[in-house]
What we know:
There is one protein chain. This protein is α/β, with parallel strands linked by helices. The protein has helices at 45-74, 76-89, 92-104, 109-124, 130-133, 136-150, 174-183, 199-207, 218-221, 243-266, 291-296, 320-333, 369-375, 377-390, 406-425, 443-447, 449-452, 463-471, 489-505, 522-528, 540-547, 552-562, 568-583, and strands at residues 9-12, 14-17, 20-28, 165-169, 186-191, 211-213, 227-231, 236-239, 280-285, 302-305, 338-342, 395-400, 436-440, 459-461, 509-511, 532-535. The strands form two sheets. An eight-stranded mixed beta sheet has the order 1-8-7-3-4-5-6-2. An eight-stranded parallel barrel has the order 9-10-11-12-13-14-15-16, surrounded by four helices. A hairpin with a 4-residue loop joins strand 7 (227-231) and strand 8 (236-239). Helix 1 packs antiparallel against helix 2, helix 3 (92-104) crosses helix 4 and helix 12 packs parallel to helix 14 (377-390).
Amino acid sequence: MSSQATPTLRLMGIGASPGVAVGHAFILDRKRIRTPKLRLAEAEVEPERMRMKTAVDLSDRQLAELKEQITRTEGSDHALILEAHRLMLHDPMLVDAVNQLIVEDRINAEWAVRRVARKIKHLFDNIPDEYFRERRSDVDYVADRIIRNLMGQVVDEEVEVPAEAIVVAHDLPPADASLMARSGRVAGFVTDLGGQTSHTAIVARARETPAVVGAGRASEQISPGDLVAMDGTRGIILVNPTEEQLQSFREEQRRHQEAEQLALATKDLEAVSTDGFRIRLNGNMEFLEEIPSLLAHGAEGIGLYRTEFMFLDRKTAPTEEEHYRAYRQVLEAMGGKPVTIRTLDLGGDKVPGKTKHEKEPNPAMGLRAIRYCLSNRELFRVQLRALLRASVHGNLRLMFPLICGVSELREARSELEACRTELGRAGVPVGKRFPVGIMVETPSAAMIADRLAQEADFFSVGTNDLIQYSLAIDRQNREVAYLYRPLHLSVLRMLETIVHAAKAANIPVSMCGEMAGDPLYTLVLLALGFDELSMTSGQIPAVKRFLRRVGRKDATELLREAMELTTAEEIERFMRTEMDRRFVDTPEPAAAHESPGDTPSGRTTG
Length: 606
């Protein structure tokens, strides 16, 4: 379709995988099928239950085949998602509830599956963690598969995607997203649903394919063949752009490709300011497949390895051996570079095997993270034993989430030492003592950072929660999301307090929240004196580029001026203006500073 045939339509979504893409829309119609609703005679009840069992068994075989196919080409991590779907198929919470409706309400299996799936999805609404809340879509994937098999419809239809297409869909099952991304024919993904932690986002980032998710009714507003220009960083979608807009996007695409080439060329250069202050740039990760991209973009280590994916849609918790294998793979893949593994950031409503699904009044402030682990010691010890065993295979750093006080840290470290002793007595090899740090993500931890620094080997600031708790806002609530301001003066003062406490105790201080990967805040973090920043692979080159073009003394002066302002809007406007004035056209300096600079060394006890 010509760009002049239809007026340009501008859509906004969530930038889920960085990069710019231009191509023609390929609409993937995977919308939910219409569910038939029938009442059964008494004699039809038992045959209907058998029909349900047949559909579940067929669905299980299909998923097993898909899992094998993806394991061969993509590796085991993405295949874990399909294994989780297989477990859901046989979960009594689904199967028994469906059979109960068939028997008691005498309704057909399709209708019963849809009703139960809707009820299960409601249980996810109260989960504070975005990653697990996104798993609502898994319930739909499994329910749709069963219903299609009940109705005798084609389930896993192979789709021939045109070259350089922008795939537009209401939502994408993980198998579809993975197989299409692997084909190399997809220029970008656009979906109506999803967030930063949806399957489409995870797969797209692993494959370095631009993606915009959560775009509302994009699949209805975009027609097949429409020319689409999309920005996977800012979440912008232009449908049938003007020539001027198209030229702008292609120029942005060219700059992104140049930045990617520069990233490959400069991946071994240090992120060091013009006056010699060294900052390590690490990567955030969840799946093993993300490591090649992180290394290619210059990650010097893993600053945050989230382990919650192992609990995805399971009926039972992972075994110690499963934990161990996962950690060993990552440590070995990083080849001696530091890997910071965060212990489970779970809440009571997202742990497998839990039969009660009572909603907590305020789950974001309820029994979660280190609190949950200390309330469920054996689950915690399983992970700690696996980490100790895996430490033989690489450069491990351990991190406890949501620490609010010294007593929690002491208790968690005591459990770690008890596990070390237990393994030693059993003759199980463990590595040498490794650094044990904490996530600083609550105002209470920030306020007593000086005390915590005496007992932690390093700090890692989780700005997502720290800002949310400090400003008393829920980022997922559209009514108040605009209040989420990283440059709020109270946030800057807290960051200053945390860094000063770490420096005084001579322990490293890093940041692994979203703020770390946004170049707008790079000068602020340099001025504050952070030793390490951790982010997604695509963010590393831009942050490194800014760091290598400015001196810390200059950044410190800018921050001092900014903190004399009052509102977040004033501070943000000031920083944007200064960045535009000073750094937009400044050339990248030669690799003049390749020494470590003045980063303090941390303790190595733990």
